[in-house]
Amino acid sequence: MELIKKDIDITGYTTFGIPVKARLFAEYKSAAELIKICRTADYLENPVLHIGGGSNLLFGRDFDGLVLHSGVKGITEYHKDDDTVYVISGAGEKWTDLVDYCVEHDIEGLENLAGIPGEVGASPVQNVGAYGVEAGDRIWKVECLDRTTLEVVTISGSDCGFAYRDSNFKHEWKDRYFVLRVSFRLRPGRRARNLEYAALRKLENELGHAPSISEVRDAVLRLRDSKLPDPSVVGSAGSFFVNPVIRKAYYEWECLNFNKSVPCIPHRVAEEPQESDFSDHAVYEKCLQEYRAYRDASQVKVPAGWLIEHAGLKGVSIGGAYVYPDNCLVIANDGTATAADVADLARLIEDRVLEAFHIALKPEVNFIDTAVKVTVLGSGTSKGVPELLCNCSVCRSEDPHDKRLRASVLVETMGVRLLIDPSPDFRQQAMVHGIGRIDAVLITHEHYDHVGGIDDLRPYCFWGALDIYCREDVNEKLHSRLDYCFRSTLYPGVPVFRMHSVANEPFFVKGVRIEPIEVLHGSLPIYGYRIGKFAYVTDAKYIDAAEREKLHGVDTLIVNGLRWRDHFAHFTVAEALRLIEEVGPRRAYLTHLCHEVGRHDSFASRLPKGVWPAYDGLHLTVE
């Protein structure tokens, strides 16, 4: 039987209830079947998305690639001793079925997580949590298929980097591993032990005795039903936003003083874990370390639902999407919503909350779109256009196309937003284009006209360290120039970065494949980047044959073409056109332009068919 099927409706694999199809779809029931799929051309030559129950996915359009779904089933248990029981579940099992299995077999530890939609394979990825318990507290081992070697490996839960709704599987391990099975270290017994959550402490008082795991599960289900819509009746993704975790100093100095018309913004500080609550000492030690880091960083957690409600958004709707009145963390589908309705409403919520409280919300839901959307933030050279002290016709032009900030682009795909080069004009660019979120930054090289706006990234470090990817030499230079961002004791408010040195080989950023293209800027090796069928190359003077080969097959190429006359470190217009002719993209744009190319309209008229001058504010969609 064919494992990979074509043009399959996958609406039923999501909880939003918004119609969506996959061009290719495969459900595997074993590691052997998955390995077989991974060796096919359909897998190797297309975007690949692995889904579970779809409770955290919003598809912007039909998925133009291969969707994989785990059909690995089975729940087994074995006892190590009187205090420990291990439960192993296939990734394709429903999470609710696993919780029910444990309760019915008198196994304590997961009952607080009852009613969470999705499948077991998502638990180590999302680190699902509720009512005082996170899956990462209980996960012992994760069995995965390594996509690079096609070997089955077992990863210890203590190595998974579990944090609040986070794990290594969402970052450096994304698109490296497929989860096959998850092993949980739990306790035998009927008595519930995790009652720190206020509503569960109340339950104990109401019952007059320590509740059983069955009573806790039922109470949790009642609590969830009172706050969250049933996804089989009302389409939603559950909680749409993550509760913000922010620095205490920022909370006190900025948030509390920003909006005097509302009562004090509620917050919660981390609670020190107690060893008696853990059956695994190693997990306890890890949680204790996380608590100490959280405490030492002086962070607080703010309820996103409260922020949304007090920003006046309860019940607000766009199209068929609306803020669920009983829980403002939920964006619901009245049955007619489109993905655009949900996305527009999410943006409205983010804007209103930021405006009201100076707090940025971060979606827990992943926006999935295989198209690559590009915004040219700046198309000018290191001096920009107009140049200072120049009175030429280009610099005097009133045409907005002739107003060129320093070169930079914003790239959005698969729900991930990437900034390539924070130029010295980034602050102005971000304000003009309303850039409310950046997931990571790619840097081509260390010259000031490509990194001079790094300090202006500080608002985007609101959620913690912002990921920056660059060459090792660039990493070293930035550590030297921005030493105040990397000290052991940081001044409040400075930007905080998580630096990644990348070699000249493909790497992944939150699941998006990035391929560096090494070029010479004069004699300096620097990077361009290819993302899907889009490539961005700036400041190149020479590209050798092996690196040029990486550009073949691109649909859209943006490349530097400084001016008509020769330059020692940049392509001339003619040199850029020769590269474009060799690579053969469907369309190409010239960037990093100085005033010598002439006014935009006249310059465009001199270029061959399929080639245009880029300009600030140019929007492109690469399918």
Tell me the layout of helices and strands.
Elements: E1 4-9, E2 21-28, H1 31-38, H2 41-44, E3 48-51, E4 57-59, E5 63-70, E6 75-81, E7 84-90, H3 95-104, E8 107-108, H4 123-126, E9 129-130, E10 133-134, E11 139-146, E12 151-156, E13 177-188, H5 198-207, H6 213-227, E14 235-239, E15 241-242, E16 245-247, H7 248-258, H8 281-296, E17 299-301, H9 304-310, E18 317-318, E19 321-323, E20 330-333, H10 339-357, E21 362-363, E22 366-368, E23 372-378, E24 408-413, E25 416-420, H11 426-433, E26 440-442, H12 448-451, E27 466-470, H13 472-481, E28 497-501, E29 507-509, E30 512-521, E31 524-531, E32 534-537, H14 545-549, E33 556-560, H15 573-583, E34 587-591, H16 600-605, E35 611-613, E36 619-622
Parallel strand pairs: 2-5, 3-5, 4-22, 25-26, 26-27, 27-28, 32-33, 33-34, 34-35
Antiparallel strand pairs: 1-2, 6-7, 7-13, 8-13, 9-10, 11-12, 11-13, 14-20, 15-21, 16-17, 18-19, 19-20, 23-24, 23-36, 24-25, 29-30, 30-31, 31-32
Can you give a write-up of this model?
The structure is a single chain. The chain has 623 residues and is an alpha/beta fold. It has 4 domains: 67 residues, Uridine Diphospho-n-acetylenolpyruvylglucosamine Reductase, domain 2; 153 residues, Uridine Diphospho-n-acetylenolpyruvylglucosamine Reductase, domain 3 (2-Layer Sandwich), CATH 3.30.465.10; 95 residues, UDP-N-acetylenolpyruvoylglucosamine reductase, C-terminal domain (Uridine Diphospho-n-acetylenolpyruvylglucosamine Reductase, domain 1, Alpha-Beta Complex), CATH 3.90.78.10; 252 residues, Metallo-beta-lactamase, Chain A (4-Layer Sandwich), CATH 3.60.15. Helix content is 24%, strand content 28%. The chain has 16 helices and 36 strands. The radius of gyration is 26 Å and the shape is globular.
